[in-house]
Amino acid sequence: NSRGASSLLKDSIPITEFSASGPFEGHDLLRRGFTSVKNELLPCHPLELSEKKFQLNQDKTNFDTLRNIQGLHAPLKLQMEFRAVKQVQRLPFLHSSNIALDTLRGNDECISFEDILNDPSQSEVMGEPHIMMEYKLGLL
């Protein structure tokens, strides 16, 4: 899920930042969908939580296995490389492929759901470059 929507959405500006807030603000159905208390309290499907935490659980398992085989230094070195690679990104309004992170995780040779059905060039995350850069720098 490193190349999926999460990599696009973490640098984007939330829509609620630019919307008018107050007692007379209406619910925007096009952007937020229908409201349901049940959907906010419980996940939609029993496997939803498992799928959201899949990459984290897989990394934990890999680090534990690596620690048992090679010692404590190996997972620590790999975690430092992950942190360094995650910090290198393009400007907020450009899509970042995170190819270095995929290479470290070993996902560069496999074709997944995000590679085919999650085309970032057709995403609706693109915004005004100047506003997005000012938001990232904390000027807004």
From TrEMBL:
The keyword Chaperone applies. One of its GO terms (cellular component) is nucleus. Keywords: Chaperone. The keyword Protein transport does not apply. InterPro entries: Ump1 (IPR008012). GO terms for biological process: proteasome assembly. Belongs to the POMP/UMP1 family. PANTHER family: PROTEASOME MATURATION PROTEIN, PROTEASOME MATURATION PROTEIN UMP1. This is POMP protein. The gene is Pomp.
